[in-house]
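ugh ok fine here u go
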Amino acid sequence: MAATNPVRPGDTRTEPRNQKITTFLWFDNNAEEAANFYISIFKNSRILKSAPYPEGAPGQKGSVMIVDFELDGQQFTALNGGPHFKFTEAISLLVHCKDQEEIDYYWEKLTADGGQESQCGWLKDKYGLSWQIAPDELLKVWSEGDQAKAKRVMQAMMPMKKLIIKDLEAAAAG
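structure:
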């Protein structure tokens, strides 16, 4: 899937932000590549703009410093900040899925080309960013108040990597 609104480095178009808080992602030197990877996976996604490093900044003048992009209506900013900081599992992006088909799709796309499966529906993509791929129904189990049901679902989920809805439903049913 190609960008619906591709923007080239140096493009000075600006679009107003329509959210107060934006997730800011630090990449070594592949922010633009990562943004294009993400918009290829999520529907209704696009590059909003990019900005080059100005003269006197730590990056190479003219190379991409920041890329603003949107994933299904959610805005993000990616920075080519150098090798100083890496992503950790302390922060992850949760993808709400309606069915197994969606879970399978996002799991396959985000673990492709060097991504890594983790546990309980968590994964790292090829850039090291952590994601949770979870069915909305699972998230409801924790708030329903049925502790026995929640415990059964938790026990079923713990050994899983990619979440399998039918197995979680069977655990919920008892």
